[in-house]
Amino acid sequence: MSEKHLSSQFDSDLNSVSSQLMEMGGLVETQIQRAMQALAIFSVTLADEVIQVEDRVDGMEVAIDRALTSTVARRQPAARDLRLLLAVSKITTNLERAGDEAQKIARKVKSIVENGEARDMPIGDLRLSADLASSLVRRSLDAFARLDVAAAISIVKEDDLIDREFKGFTRKLITYMVEDPRTISESLDLLFIAKAVERIGDHAKNIAEYVIYITWGMDVRHRPLAEVEAALRENQADDGPS
Q: To which H or E segment does residue 58 belong?
């Protein structure tokens, strides 16, 4: 976010909002990691920490939206700057929803522990997806901070990995349930958690798509990935030596 404007106060507003957004993103990333740690060791304490942090995340979303509204009203930004502020609002919403998914995981962990359900479930299979989802959230925010379109497109591509992991894990759970109906309850719990992880990846992808929107003014949410990559190559060629 290094581009300068004629109004130093507008730059200050942008930097303030961006800092709040990055802080919120770091908090959500921690929520995701702690929720999965709670699952790994069946810790009600860790699960409660994740749930309690959600109020703080919600408060940060409200504060950022308030700051954005104030900036639009006072500065009356045009073109790319207005696009930036609108996209930041969308990114904030996606971060809050990713935090919601982490909270869902934490609540499910509490339910598993409190109901005394079996603890020999294949939770290790969720680690890769959860680690990847958390990484995508972090990288999407880094792409936003640098307005790095190439990095954003890479994140959009990698979200497909999480989707494939989710589908593969679902097939595995179905096999468990068919072979041993006693595993149905535990398998459904894991399926719920796996879906929450998959949605976190979707929110990271959405953030990356808004980075592209800020930089290029192109809404790529429903465009084929090949088309977006072709646009990247074209833009890189235009920026190259003549």
A: helix 44-75
Q: pLDDT at position 13, please? A: 84
Residue 3 lies in a domain: no
Does the residue 105 lie in any domain?
Answer: yes
CA–CA separation, 84 vs 198, rounded Å?
Answer: 27
CA dist 208 and 225 (Å) reads: 13
CB atoms within 10 A of CB 229: 15
Contact, 127 vs 35, CB < 8 A? no
Phi, psi of 68, deg, nearest 5 = -65, -45
In a domain, 48, yes or no: yes
User: How many CB atoms within 10 Å of residue 78?
Assistant: 8
Reported pTM:
0.88
pLDDT tens across 64-86, in order?
999 999 988 887 777 778 888 99
Q: Are 139 and 174 in contact (CB under 8 A)?
A: no
Please give the residue range of the domain that contains residue 123.
8-239
Rounded to 10 degrees, what is the CA torsion of 201, 206, 208, 213? 170
pLDDT digits 0-9 by tens, 188-198: 999 999 999 99
The rounded distance, in Å, linking the Cα atoms of 134 and 206 is 14
CA 205, distance to chain mean position in Å, is 7
Q: Residue 206: which CATH number?
A: 1.20.58.220
